[in-house]
Amino acid sequence: MKRDQSGDEQGAHSVPKSRFATRLRNYFLTGLVITGPIGITLWLTWTFIQWVDGWVKPIVPRAYNPETYLPFPVPGLGLILAILILTIVGFLAANFLGRSLLSVGESLVNRMPLVRNLYSGLKQIFETVLDERSNSFSKAALVEYPRKGLWAIVFISTETKGEVARRLKDKAETVSVFLPTTPNPTSGFLLFVPREDVIELSMGVEDAAKLVISAGLVNPNYPEILADYVEDPLPEQSAT
């Protein structure tokens, strides 16, 4: 009888302890969820600022470096100077003299076999990504990949152009899409898909990228997206 009473007392004491441990674990995980993204964002921002400072500060003459006259370093000075320099370069390139100098420099680069290909490719990428008039990756969509019945998220780039478009002129109208990989969306595959096989999504490119990076764990749940699914459901697969 005494054994039963002692066992009940031990069980009664173990229940509060387990609840307390569970609460501590939940508090810890909650704190990790809150501070983790903030801490990583601050760390990446600080690392980027230091990286830019390490490149820019050494080329600044001591007479023009504020740290020469201050008893403490100025974090972010290199980043500010880099933004200022890029703005000045853009201003100069926008006038006639700047365009003339730029054309002369490009003509010299075009005479270098290996450098020419590298420069032209990088220039085209930067112009496509940074051009405000460009609509590259403006929409997210679904395509059947790698086989029918399986769906993958893609980013619509542009209508198919150039030689590829000429070769496919007898086919259905196609679009260029980028199929990102998980968890690194910067790598992936370029696909030329018939427009009729592309299902555009209401979610933005940023939300689609989060969905890809998180392997489906972060899923935007917007009312308008759900409404689109009701009004325009996925096409039914024909029985084979």
A few lines on this structure:
InterPro entries: COV1-like. This protein is α+β, with helices and mostly antiparallel strands. Helix content is 53%, strand content 13%.
How would the blueprint of this fold be written?
Layout: H1 2-56, H2 77-93, H3 96-109, H4 113-130, E1 139-144, E2 151-159, H5 162-167, E3 174-180, E4 188-194, E5 199-200, H6 205-213, H7 223-231
Antiparallel strand pairs: 1-2, 1-5, 2-3, 3-4
Helix pairs in contact: 1-2, 2-3
Q: Terminal Cα separation, in Å?
A: 71 Å
Structural class: alpha+beta
**Counted beta strands:** 5
Which oligomeric form is depicted?
Answer: single chain
The overall pLDDT average reads 80
Shape label: flat
Low-confidence stretches: none
CATH architecture of the domain at 139-231: Roll
So what's the CATH class of the domain at 139-231?
Mainly Beta
The CATH topology of the domain at 139-231 comes to SH3 type barrels
Strand-residue proportion: 5-15%
Largest β sheet strand count, sense and barrel closure: 5 strands, antiparallel
> Helix-strand pattern, N to C?
HHHHEEHEEEHH
Q: What is the topology, as strand order, of the major beta sheet?
A: 4-3-2-1-5
Rg, Cα atoms, Å: 28 Å
So how many helices?
7
Percent helix among the residues? 40-55%
